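Researcher: I've been going back and forth with a colleague about how Glutathione S-transferase might be arranged in three dimensions. Neither of us has a model we trust, so I'd like an independent prediction. The organism is Porites lobata, in case that matters for your notes. Sequence below.
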Amino acid sequence: MSGYKLFYFPVRGAGEKCRLAFAAAKIDYEDIRLPAEEWLKVKASGRPPLGQMPFIVTPEGKILAQSGTIMKYICKKGGLCPADSFDEATADMISDGVVDLIQQLIKIYYEKDETKKEELKKEFYGTTLPPRLEKFEALLKNRDEGKGFFLGEKLSYADITFFDFFNSFHAKGKEDVPGELEKFPLLVEHYKRVLNVPEINEWVKKRPVTEF
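Model: Here is an independent structure prediction for Glutathione S-transferase. You can compare it with whatever you and your colleague have in mind.
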């Protein structure tokens, strides 16, 4: 299948899990990276349904926005969405749990008061992230003792969301396992497992190097 177009800035950011989903789903697409001045023109056209990126245009010309929605849509097209309704809800829960963490990091990033920024970082990495990782590891262990993916033997969008968060925000797009995971051996192996999915590994190796 081909003919999809993904519009986003020339960075990993919120668009990267969509790119990872396209790769994992083996769906061809055009990776359109718009600099700020070009984005303003596209935004002014009214084409993006919510006035923001990322958004995709399907081969039929339909337009869809919101990174999580796009990722799930592509994964469903590529057979990477759980068939069982409760498993799908669990994948949503895990993905939403990661989004909670992303929103907190974004808040820290935009904090202008350096003293407060350091306090927020200390709180996030000291008291917020570790307990959440314990919960994620427990969810992973619930399926085959953590030897596979979050929903079993098959990769899903929950795994892509989790991997992208740690790869983009903490490993800075490199293949290294982030230090934040080192106390959680099952999550370390999960990170490696997702990275070693051939299509994902190929994309990580060849994608443009960006700061974030």
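Researcher: What would you highlight for our discussion?
Model: I'd start with this: The longest helix spans residues 114-141. After that, consider the following. The helical segments are 16-25, 36-44, 67-77, 85-110, 114-141, 157-169, 185-195, 198-206.
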